[in-house]
TrEMBL record:
<dbReference type="InterPro" id="IPR018449">
    <property type="entry name" value="NIL_domain"/>
</dbReference>
<dbReference type="InterPro" id="IPR017871">
    <property type="entry name" value="ABC_transporter-like_CS"/>
</dbReference>
<protein>
    <submittedName>
        <fullName>D-methionine transport system ATP-binding protein</fullName>
    </submittedName>
</protein>
<keyword id="KW-0029">Amino-acid transport</keyword>
<dbReference type="Pfam" id="PF00005">
    <property type="entry name" value="ABC_tran"/>
</dbReference>
<keyword id="KW-0547">Nucleotide-binding</keyword>
<dbReference type="InterPro" id="IPR045865">
    <property type="entry name" value="ACT-like_dom_sf"/>
</dbReference>
<dbReference type="InterPro" id="IPR027417">
    <property type="entry name" value="P-loop_NTPase"/>
</dbReference>
<keyword id="KW-1278">Translocase</keyword>
<dbReference type="InterPro" id="IPR041701">
    <property type="entry name" value="MetN_ABC"/>
</dbReference>
<dbReference type="InterPro" id="IPR003593">
    <property type="entry name" value="AAA+_ATPase"/>
</dbReference>
<keyword id="KW-1003">Cell membrane</keyword>
<keyword id="KW-0472">Membrane</keyword>
<keyword id="KW-0813">Transport</keyword>
<dbReference type="InterPro" id="IPR003439">
    <property type="entry name" value="ABC_transporter-like_ATP-bd"/>
</dbReference>
<feature type="domain" description="ABC transporter">
    <location>
        <begin position="2"/>
        <end position="241"/>
    </location>
</feature>
<dbReference type="GO" id="GO:0005524">
    <property type="term" value="F:ATP binding"/>
</dbReference>
Length: 346
């Protein structure tokens, strides 16, 4: 559906040059919601703007719906862009036009008939839940409503792909939730493929089937959201996963743990979150797991849990217990704290 083939983008400013994208390859499949996550400056905006060639790649090829956009003439590119809708963090509405006109004007410019414009505005305003705001001006709308108008405008061209450039970043948590629900509905009911960029784990967790993690102009990890975040291998991916759970390990807690053992963080997906693996461990081995902190969240439809556990016991038994937990598809990571003879030794 969307294929970026070895895309590089350099910005040349005065005497310096910035490599914003360094050979990025990724594929978004038809009908999925694909998220790109990364910290500020990772290259996400540049990447998404390369998909519809708002930004021209310095190297590499862009394919959308089987068509190589990077080889098209300006005229053909303009026509192809109509099949790629885009929404932005700042909504980009015309302030002096009504909701109706914000959607109608771009259609008029592409030669859509008056009656067809009326039908499309009605249809898409209904889908985004704003049928009663046709005559309102953007200044009379909340941020969430403005984003809904922008979504209706993007859909009114009947695109096969919707690009979302941090579309919820300027919205409060409840409104973000509602807009993400709307994106899920559009994907499900209209079958539109969605590529979004974000710096928020919450957005990826809620809507994305697959994800790419970006850092310093490169995709460092990509795959199914549940695979990438349950067995992250790159430090940046690990940082994003840990940001979901935010376990607090205070010095006071560490000083008072007593006994021997190791503090580990356990992460588990789906059914393992319901199995009593820790209870089994304490029966099978001479260890005593003590839960210090815990949390369960979602990765789209999959429950995803994390526990911070002090596994009390002699070193060899603790290691056997950890090995057993790993065999149950639980991701086990040392939290960097070992306890021996009532003392923290690391
Ligand atoms: N028009 C431009 N001219 C020069 N450098 C640019 C331009 N646009 C982006 N860059 C640089 O390219 C790199 C990637 O920027 P980009 O905006 O794509 O990252 P991002 O991940 O979207 O970050 P943010 O979330 O902060 O927007 C940065 O170092 C940025 O300074």
């Amino acid at each position: 559906m969307i294929r970026l083939d070895n895309i590089s983008k350099s910005y040349v400013t005065n005497r310096s040059s910035i490599d914003a994208l360094k050979g990025v390859t990724l594929e978004v499949k038809k009908g999925e919601i694909f998220g790109v996550i990364g910290y500020s400056g990772a290259g996400k905006s540049t990447l998404i703007r390369c998909v519809n060639l708002l930004e021209k790649p310095s190297k590499g090829k862009v394919f959308v719906d089987g068509l190589e956009l990077t080889s098209l003439s300006s005229k053909k590119l303009l026509a192809s862009r109509r099949k790629i809708g885009m929404i932005f963090q700042g909504f980009n509405l015309l302030k002096t036009a009504t909701v109706y006109d914000n959607i109608a004007i771009p259609l008029r410019l592409t030669g859509v008939s008056k009656s067809e414009i009326g039908a499309r505005v009605d249809k898409y305003l209904e889908i985004v839940g704003l049928s009663d705001k046709k005559d309102a001006y953007p200044s009379q709308l909340s941020g969430g409503q403005k984003q809904r108008v922008a979504i209706a405008r993007a859909l009114s061209n009947e695109p096969s792909v919707l690009l979302s450039d941090e579309a919820t970043s300027a919205l409060d948590p409840d409104t973000t939730e509602a807009i993400l629900e709307l994106l899920l509905k559009i994907n499900d009911e209209l079958g539109i493929t969605i590529l979004l960029i974000t710096h928020e784990m919450h957005v990826i967790q809620k809507v994305c089937d697959r994800v790419a993690v970006m850092e310093n102009g490169e995709v460092v990890e990509q795959g199914l959201t549940k695979d990438v975040f349950t067995s992250p291998s790159h430090p940046t991916t690990k940082k994003f996963v840990n940001s979901i759970f935010n376990h607090q390990l205070t010095n006071e807690l560490l000083e008072n743990l007593g006994d021997n053992g190791e503090i580990v963080s356990l992460k588990f997906l789906g059914h393992s979150s319901k199995d009593p693996a820790l209870a089994v461990v304490s029966k099978k081995f001479d260890v005593y797991p003590n839960i210090l902190s815990g949390n369960i969240t979602q990765l789209k439809e999959h429950p995803f849990g994390s526990l911070l556990v002090h596994i009390k016991g002699e070193e060899s038994e603790v290691q056997r217990a950890i090995q057993y937990l790993k065999e149950q598809n639980i991701q086990v990571e040392g939290a960097g704290h070992h306890v021996k003879n009532n003392k923290r030794i690391s």
